[in-house]
Amino acid sequence: MRTIAWREENGGFIQLLDQRRLPESATQLDVTSNEELINAIQNLAVRGAPALGVAGALGVALIAHRAESESWSKDDIERAISQLREARPTAVNLAWGVDLAKGQFTNGPAAVLKLALKLAEDDAKSCREMGRIGADYLIEKLGKKKLRILTHCNTGALATTEWGTALGVVRELHSRKLIEEVFADETRPLLQGSRLTAWELAQAGIPYRILPDGAAASALFSGLIDAVLIGADRIARNGDSANKIGSLSVAVAASQVAVPFLVVAPESTVDRNIESGEHIEIEFRSDSEVTTFAGVNIAPAGSETYNPAFDVTPARYITAVVTDKKVYRVKDGEAL
């Protein structure tokens, strides 16, 4: 399954698997302009840190093609690239992908596209490595036995170009016949766990159950969970990690019952320019994502909300950060 791809027809465009329509339908979304891509990113047609990195790079390729064919000015180009780069502030991979592709801009559209496609290829390889490294680490820590894993949000193929980060570890364990069951937090407010993670698990034939976010601590304290695996949108140098809202609550509960809590993300998600999570900008989403469901009001009209898209889990609650290069034992003080 490919979340994002480049198509050569009609001068070139980006094709996305529209995640807003899952699990009802697997619908492709054709993106022919940078404005359409920004809208797709902000409305979560495409999401997940690694996928956003590739989307950012392909977006610059799209800009390069349009700039050449439409004779854009230098100011037009800079404005379009800047708007794309800032489409979502918390996930570092979007800016990372944009910046890498921008570095090839003077070499022409073909060079930008070549780099973007290389990033997509590297992401697929990176996910496989994370799966292998993470699975090996859990076996070393917990023994070679069937595991019950708790996940939060979506960290599978839909969050990357294919395979996944934290869910990639689950896939690898499943291939080794070492998964008993996955407990997937529904992940409020957009239900990316129940809509997306559960869909991916069903597609892969991996046993799973969906639980409300508020039940995660109870499941941990009841002894139902052997390990927690989550992804990240930005990781500070000290190991503090930003991920979908609710991750912190799960981490604190896991710490209380001594269940390993792993953050799985590529090296590109590590922002070594910031010392700690205090410097991570948190994106806030609209009130309507909490007060309505499928277009129906589920709260009194005019209700205001506190609706951060992410929270930051301090390194002291994280057993280890697994990347495509190694395992960082951040709870033991190992910096990234």
What is the N-to-C order of secondary-structure elements (H for helix, E for strand)?
A: EEEHHHHHEHEHEHEEEHEEHEEEEE
Multimerization state: single chain
What's the N-to-C terminus distance? 31 Å
The backbone outline, from C-alpha atoms, is globular
Radius of gyration: 19 Å
Contiguous uncertain segments of 5+ residues: none
**Which CATH class of the largest domain?**
Alpha Beta
CATH homologous superfamily caption of the largest domain: Translation initiation factor eif-2b, domain 2
Strand order of the largest sheet: 6-5-4-7-10-15-16
Mean pLDDT over the full residue set: 95
| CATH-scheme architecture of the largest domain | 3-Layer(aba) Sandwich
How many H/I helices? 10
- The percentage of residues in β strands lies in 15-25%
Give me the secondary-structure category.
alpha/beta
Report the biggest beta sheet as strand number plus sense, adding barrel if it closes.
7 strands, mixed
Residue share in helices? 25-40%
Q: What is the number of independent domains?
A: 2
At the fold tier of CATH, the topology name of the largest domain is: Rossmann fold
Number of strands: 16
